[in-house]
Amino acid sequence: MPNAPVLHSEWLKIRTLRSLPATLGALFAVTTAFSALAGADTGDDPLFTALFGVLPGQIAAVSFGALAMAAEYHGGALRVSLAAVPRRGRWFAAKLTAVAVPVLLTGLVTAATALAAARADGLTGSEQARAIIGCGLYLMLMALFATGLTAVFRSGVATLSVLIPFLLVVSFVVGDSVGTVADFLPDKAGQTVLHRTYDGSLGPWSGLAVTALWAAAALLAGAWSVRRRDT
Hints:
Largest sheet: none
Distance between the termini: 19 Å
Number of strands: 0
Oligomer: single chain
Radius of gyration: 18 Å
Strand content: under 5%
Order of helices and strands: HHHHHHHHHH
Shape: globular
């Protein structure tokens, strides 16, 4: 089967599963709302303050990735998908594209809107452009990270049970206790791009590269799971 029909099929799944468009809507709404509230206090880093809503908003991004993959493990959907596309690598790549593109586009629009809602002053055009692009990439990578883990666990509930506590609690606790090692956690590393100034081990783009490595590791494990375990 050519690539275009496979991509179209996966895109239709995203559109027709109601929880997925709703999750993208939540990503936009939560991020923008929290950023608008945080914007009342510019703080020491006006860029990060203006994009503070990304911290709770990323939960929606990882939920999108987890739910998109988890849908394949309900009602024998994966068997139907693989029967239609026997080349599992091609199918998995199409699934990842169907996850990555909507999250990236939503992330870009969300970041631009959040900056406007926060009414951040004193930021240069290059700083805002870097933050908007970086935010979109960060949210996309976190969604793909969740997609890969879901392929390994074969359960969206299991993935979210690991990632949500990690993002909300564990990452902060570990960050406070282990110092610079925390700079290389998947969320902490990628969030460097949201800061105007950064004093840690990583810069904006090197931080995103670290997050990309985490996502790549999860996706490789997920691809192995789909190829070797799932039937």
